[in-house]
Amino acid sequence: xxxxxRGVRKEFHTAKGGALTAVKDITFRVEEGEFxxxxxxxxxxxxxxxxxxxxxxxxxAGEVLVSNEPVTGPNAHVGFMLQKDLLLPWRSILANIxxxxxxxxxxxxxxxxxxxxxxxxxxxxxxxNHYPYQLSGGMRxxxxxxxxxxxxPEIILLDEPFxxxxxxxxxxxxxxxxxxxxxxxxTTLLITHDLSEAVLMSDRILILSERPGTIVAEIRVDLPHRxxxxxxxxxxxxxxxxxxxxxxxxxxxxxxxx
Amino acid sequence: MQILRNNHWLMTxxxxxxxxxxxxxxxxxxxxPRFIIxxxxxxxxxxxxxxxxxxxxxxTASTALFTVLGFVLGSVLGAAIGxxxxxxxxxxxxxxxxxxxxxxxxxxxFAPLFIMWFGFNSMPKLLVTVLIVFFPVLVNVLxxxxxxxxxxxxxxxxxxxxRWQIFxxxxxxxxxxxxxxxxxxxxxxxxxxxxxxxxxxxxxxxGFLISFGSGQANAAMxxxxxxxxxxxxxxxxxxxxxxxxxxxxxxxxxxx
Lengths: 258, 256
Description:
The complex is a heterodimer of chains A (258) and B (256). By secondary structure, chain A is α/β, with parallel strands linked by helices. Chain A has helices spanning 46-53, 93-98, 108-121, 137-150, 167-184, 195-201, 229-232, 237-248, 251-257; strands at residues 3-13, 19-30, 35-39, 61-66, 69-70, 78-81, 155-159, 187-192, 204-208, 215-220. Chain A has a domain at 1-77 and 186-258: 3-Layer(aba) Sandwich (Rossmann fold). Helix content of chain A is 35%, strand content 24%. In chain A, the strands form two sheets. In chain A, strands 6-7-8-3-9-10 form a six-stranded mixed sheet, sandwiched between helices. In chain A, α4 (137-150) runs parallel beside α5 (167-184) and α6 (195-201) crosses α8. The longest helix of chain A is centred in the last third of the chain and has 18 residues, at 167-184. Chain B is mainly α. Chain B contains eleven helices and no strands. Chain B folds into two domains: 1-32, no CATH class; 38-247, Orthogonal Bundle (MetI-like fold), CATH 1.10.3720.10. In chain B, 35% of the residues are buried. In chain B, α4 (56-87) runs antiparallel to α9 and α6 crosses α7. Chains A and B meet through β6 of A and α8 and α9 of B.
């Protein structure tokens, strides 16, 4: 399923009664099976985009469409993951992976079977009866991915899912996510502030300006191995793409000013 | 000394033995009369007499029963209202000044009022207990409901869980640690509620034995009643810690 934003704008009411525009004039499309990264300075409304796509709130103007249908509320097509794993500490890993299926009236036996399958895909076989506190940060994030994949969403939204991990775990997990998502052929939107992560994992990168966030540039990543970020990482072109992003974000000027 | 350092239980028992020895020896040595501080053996003798002549078992059972009954009723009410208010920001804001006022008001001061309303029966002590148990449970639950992780609630909404499912699968388990902490506080208060109720207007229970004993200048009787009340409180508290350890097994504990 494709994901599309048409003239999306979101305003929030501030405590003082004013209005704060988080994002404006957002128009782009993510094709079916495509992996698009959104980068931008902190506070540019990246996460606002995600919440609107998940149907948690509506845009002030414009539309978010999932396979040409406007998103009017939480729906079964979209799965999302945040920096926090959001695992329920009182549930075993297996029961956590089943969590999303419980609202949909999936029978227990089928829930279990699907959860076990995703557990294996995410390299967590043998940990089904562990509790979240018994797992490392990387494993917990893999469990969160398994939970996201278990509901078989058409679209996966990732909001800085690796930013709380150490550098090595991050690389391994990017690789494992890249593989799993490519194999499942999911349409994916990754929100990140990590420029090289955007280059390593995606087909296309959108750059947002500072608040109110709007798209200032779009870069197509013409590199192979999207399903294996670790391989892509060794390619010399990666540095050039990152440098381009660097320029678009005007980081050099900011460095001078700072 | 090394054996004692490695075994704090042994040391705890030794402290008890030391206190009992001092209790037995000091009052006569200092010339303190029996009606002020009875010795350990005199208190034990009195316990035997109370067992034979004052219907100690029935009185203890009555107090224990009303402690548990008041605790259960007060907790269920407190938790239910805490969860209801936790789900409605509007009503929480409307009612919060009254909750605060009632929370601050000394609940035991209501005992004479309840006796005026209901007479010298079991109702006043039960009501005082329910009232005193109610607030710590309510406040703990309400506070926990307000601090449930927003992102987890959003996740549940994104998974299209119904409001009822969100309560049972996310909010209730999230608030369980606070609920249990509230219940533990409430269990110690329940004993106070029953005791005050019995002191003020009862003719049964350990609280009644306290006021009866003090009227007769029988300090040993008061001592025994206080010890038994404490034991009832400890029993209730222990059951709760045991239940808590089972329910909250998923929270890692640091070993001391």
